[in-house]
């Protein structure tokens, strides 16, 4: 006689309520950001207009007319896409070599790459700025793409290495016996089998590049400035312009939130690639 397990009251009601509570907790800052973006700077800091106020599009109009939002958004797209692409072009062969042709120093190299993420960015700010200005690449797309690539490359290689290790080595060895080239292994076997992991790595890298503020603010002035610099520009000695700051922040966060929403299935599938089923 089969025994059918009955769901507890917590499983029926408690878990959904808890899940909604956590979701609302994470969503509330974004909601409040968008909510505040429709207030004037005066209303945004006035407790009397915390919930009841006259909505206005003044902040968004000011953002597009006076701050040239599209210039900063285009720079963010160009630098994030190209930095992600370069990181994958370098990271896929590197992770492939470490996963399928490891040496006795592979683990040491992986740990060394990961240790570079522990270095405070402020420690290398002056030499990076000095080199960028000395080489004439300060405030250019090239220096931002280069820095974003180097900053995210350790994470890219680590993630891809983990995904590639889950692919049976026998498949690669069988292809090698058939005379396939190294590029053929990567193109015809590795990328199709690990596509979910590669897509998840690309998406996370793009998000990291898009959200990078430290380097994009300090290595640019006008020409290559991204949305992070636009947000930084909404500060003044007398304080923050909360209405305008919220509008700019909402416009900067919006594209990446939409991208994550449409790619969430691919992201979850990629992050769970190789997990114990």
Strand arrangement, largest sheet? 1-2
- Would you identify the CATH H-level superfamily of the domain at 68-233? MetI-like
**Architecture of the domain at 68-233, CATH level 2?**
Orthogonal Bundle
Report, as a whole number of angstroms, the end-to-end distance. Answer: 28 Å
Mean pLDDT: 83
Q: What kind of sheet is the major sheet? A: 2 strands, antiparallel
Tell me the name of the CATH class of the domain at 68-233.
Mainly Alpha
What is the overall number of helices? 14
* Tertiary shape: globular
Taking all Cα atoms into account, the compactness measure Rg is: 24 Å
Poorly predicted regions: none
CATH topology name of the domain at 68-233, in short, is MetI-like fold
Written as H for each helix and E for each strand, in order along the chain, the element string is HHHHHHHHHHHHEEHH
Percent range for helical residues? Answer: over 70%
Please count the beta strands (DSSP E, at least 2 residues each).
2
How much strand content do the residues show? under 5%
Structural class: mainly alpha
Walk me through the structure.
- The protein is mainly α and 277 residues long.
- The protein has a domain at 68-233: Orthogonal Bundle (MetI-like fold).
- Helices cover 71% and strands 1% of the residues.
- Helix 8 (169-177) packs antiparallel against helix 9 (182-193).
- The radius of gyration is 24 Å and the shape is globular.
- The two termini are 28 Å apart.
């Amino acid at each position: 006689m089969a025994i059918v397990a009955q769901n507890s009251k917590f499983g029926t009601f408690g878990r959904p309520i808890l899940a909604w509570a956590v979701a609302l907790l994470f969503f509330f800052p974004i909601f409040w950001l968008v909510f505040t973006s429709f207030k004037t700077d005066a209303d945004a800091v006035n407790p009397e207009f915390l919930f009841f106020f006259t909505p206005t599009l003044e902040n968004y109009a000011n953002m597009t007319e006076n701050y040239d939002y599209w210039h900063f958004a285009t720079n963010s797209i160009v630098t994030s896409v190209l930095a992600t692409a370069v990181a994958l072009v370098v990271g896929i062969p590197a992770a492939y070599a470490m996963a399928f042709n490891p040496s006795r120093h592979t683990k040491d190299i992986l740990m060394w790459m990961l240790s570079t993420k522990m270095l405070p960015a402020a420690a290398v700010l002056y030499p990076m700025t000095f080199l960028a200005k000395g080489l004439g690449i300060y405030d250019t797309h090239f220096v931002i793409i280069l820095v974003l690539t180097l900053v995210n490359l350790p994470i890219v290689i680590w993630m891809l290495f983990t995904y590639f290790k889950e692919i049976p080595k026998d498949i690669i060895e069988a292809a090698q016996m058939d005379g396939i080239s190294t590029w053929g292994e990567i193109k015809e076997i590795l990328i199709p089998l690990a596509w979910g992991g590669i897509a998840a790595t690309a998406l996370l890298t793009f998000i990291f590049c898009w959200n990078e503020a430290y380097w994009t603010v300090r290595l640019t002035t006008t020409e290559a400035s991204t949305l992070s610099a636009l947000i930084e520009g909404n500060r003044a000695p007398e304080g923050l312009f909360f209405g305008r700051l919220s509008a700019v922040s909402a416009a900067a966060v919006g594209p990446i939130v939409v991208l994550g929403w449409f790619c969430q299935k691919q992201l979850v599938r990629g992050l769970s690639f190789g997990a114990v089923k």
